[in-house]
Amino acid sequence: MNRPENYEEENLILGPELHFLIHGRRHRVDNFLKIIDSWSYIEFKRRLRLPRQITIKLIGELGKSGYIPEYNPEYRYKSAKLCFLLFLWYIANTEPLKTLSNKFDLPTSCIFHILKRVLAWLLTKVNTLITWPRGIDVDVICEGFKAQQGIPNILGVIDCTQIRIKKPPVDASDYYNRQKFYSISLEAIVDSDLRFTNVYCGSPGSLTDTQVFRKSMLFHIASSQSSIMFPRNTFLIGDSAYPSLPWLVPPFRDSRYLTSQQVEFNYLHSSTRMVIDKTFEQLKGRFRRLKFINDYYNVEFIIHTVIAACVLHNYCINAFDIYDFSNDDVDFQHGIHDLVQPQFYNQNTEEINQPNRRAVRIDRRTQVFNEIFS
């Protein structure tokens, strides 16, 4: 990600602020850092949601990145440490920004500058942390999915979840979703290990999953380059909100006319799709700010926060760190769409813009079905 246009101007503000925070009489900041250093491994992870070793690694990278002003290079690491830990505290909790300001005796403007800088830095890692499967990874992912319920050649599971936000000052009705709150959509594809391989965030909450999907870059690229995106006859699976395409297989429509084998296929399909429910649960459970981003009206800032959380999630997955959030108070919204989505299912959902589209749709799903039950 390129640095913002006002990067140098912000440095003139943030640099002296950090210098004063570290060297001035900001006892709450000093206490904050000392208390965190004293936490056990378990306490550190419970409160900041990341393992200590990953946090230390990221602090070091942030310090060398140039995204934190070097008002005094001698204290570069401490500046990066303060900024990153404040960011983790923010994204790990739901308390308002004003409460954070009082807690750490920091101006709200200073906290906002810090959050923006850490977000900008994390977004530079999107292309290395959230990557489309290539080479041997394709086989590994397909084997991982096949081991779950026996469906071959699955490269990923696609779905959307809603990120609750405050009522935007502009075009608010566009963001009011069918669950009766304001939100933006996060469309994601995950592999068999709960890892994000593609994310698309920011569509207004009033759009259906199908509408979000058709707006996404993934849809447009895959429609013209499916053999590259989905080598060796691989495909995605999604729920009944999604169209049936040569590279995307939804379940059979719920109907009294389904055969017993089609019902079983839908069960296997649904059970395999649970991996994305678990991924969204991990994401929102680990980074509780995503339950309700209530501090800002700026949709771009919210989008960046969500994508940064996805980046950190993949850091944890790559380090084999899956945290048990069962004792946390997590307001997990995802999953309800499976109960209400069928009413939005219509002919347009199944259509694809190419000749003989119905034959292609039936052949692809039937092909997968026959591989399992033949």
Automatic annotation (TrEMBL):
Cellular localisation: Nucleus
Source organism superkingdom: Eukaryota
Major site of localization recorded for this protein: nucleus
Gene Ontology cellular-component terms listed: nucleus
Pfam families: DDE_Tnp_4
InterPro entries for the chain: HARBI1-like, HARBI1_dom
Keyword entries, A-Z: Hydrolase, Metal-binding, Nuclease, Nucleus
Obligatory cofactor(s): a divalent metal cation
Domain DDE Tnp4: 158-314
Coiled-coil regions, chain positions: none
Any one GO molecular function term: metal ion binding
PANTHER family named in the record: GH03217P-RELATED, PTHR22930
Family: Belongs to the HARBI1 family.
Name of this protein: DDE Tnp4 domain-containing protein
Lineage: Eukaryota, Metazoa, Ecdysozoa, Arthropoda, Hexapoda
